[in-house]
Design goal:
Largest sheet: 7 strands, parallel
Distance between the termini: 37 Å
Helix content: 25-40%
Number of helices: 11
Mean pLDDT: 95
Shape: globular
CATH superfamily: NAD(P)-binding Rossmann-like Domain
Length: 306
């Protein structure tokens, strides 16, 4: 199997590559071949195993002969304040590469078996704290995260007549190797962590191993397609998340960051901290996928434990 991955040096990409290589080794399968598209081959070479081929550009349509395409590329959405230029960077880093891949899939004679393309639960926009959101929810809130994800998904789905397409709406990925949790840890370790704003906003999370296993599940199960939530079946409020993280770290949870502080620091980007969605992975569970980490406490313990 020839596998192409974009965004391979990111948190999810590195974990997926490691898991695929481990599976191949365990099954004594030397036929799987992984290629990663990267703008910085020198950096990628330091981060990725030697078995991975690095591409600085996509091949032409007549040479595009991958069996599996996994598109994880995109500028981090919460790393910087949302200026107009940063918003454009967030959008174009997702839309352009997805358009290129969709065009190649539509043009090539060798159609991939599956195209798994990134999206996010930001597709739904802010939702009421009491609302359980699954893939059938069309009452989205029209805001920036929705606009980014809607076009991102539409571009990926434009090649669904030529291959099976899965767009994965990812929640907060919990890992000991970085990501959102790494940004939260320091104040909590210092005993200064606590809820953000009202603390009622819902946080839909998934442990990294479950996320990777879900991607592999979608690769292997040829009937799976369309928009799919990649979140654990146990969303929690920001207050509950904060209390659980403090408990796992054996620290107090007594400080609260007011809404006005976050708004003044982050501007519009504070919306993704102060609002949320209680997202349910209905499609995955209906298809028989089993989550290893349903409990937030067990997932956080795995992330921050010694």
């Amino acid at each position: 199997m020839k596998i192409l991955i974009t965004g391979g040096t990111g948190l999810i990409g590195r974990a997926l590559i490691s898991s695929l290589l481990a599976d191949a080794k365990a099954n004594n399968n030397s036929n799987n071949h992984i290629s990663v598209l990267t703008r910085t081959p020198a950096k990628a070479q330091k981060l990725l195993p030697d078995e991975v081929d690095l591409l600085s550009q996509l091949p032409a349509a007549n040479e595009f002969n991958f069996d599996i395409v996994v598109n994880l590329a995109g500028e981090p959405i919460a790393d910087k304040r949302w200026s107009d230029s940063q918003k454009d960077k967030i959008c174009q880093s997702r839309w352009q590469i997805t358009q290129q891949l969709a065009d190649l899939i539509n043009q090539t004679e060798h159609k991939p078996q599956v195209f798994i393309s990134g999206s996010a639960i930001g597709y739904y926009g802010r939702q009421a704290d009491s609302e359980q959101v699954d893939e059938s929810n069309y009452q989205v809130h029209p805001e920036f995260t929705y606009e980014v994800c809607k076009k991102w998904e539409d571009i990926a789905l434009s090649c669904n007549s030529n291959t099976r397409v899965c767009v994965i709406r990812t929640g907060i990925v919990l890992s000991r190797d970085g990501g959102a949790l790494a940004k939260m840890l320091l104040p909590f370790k210092l005993g200064l962590g606590g809820p953000m704003g009202s603390g009622r906003q819902m946080m839909s999370w998934i442990y990294i191993d479950d996320h990777i296993n879900a991607i592999k599940f979608l690769i292997e199960h040829q009937h799976c397609h369309g928009a799919i939530n990649l979140t654990a079946p146990n969303p929690v409020s920001n207050t509950t998340f904060s209390q659980t993280l403090a408990k796992v770290l054996h620290r107090p949870c007594i400080f609260r960051t007011p809404k006005w502080v976050l708004s003044s620091i982050f501007g519009e980007m504070s919306d993704i901290i102060l609002t949320g969605q209680a997202v349910w992975p209905k499609y995955l569970t209906d298809q028989g996928f089993s989550f290893q980490y349903n409990s937030l406490e067990s997932a956080l313990s795995k992330c921050v434990g010694s």
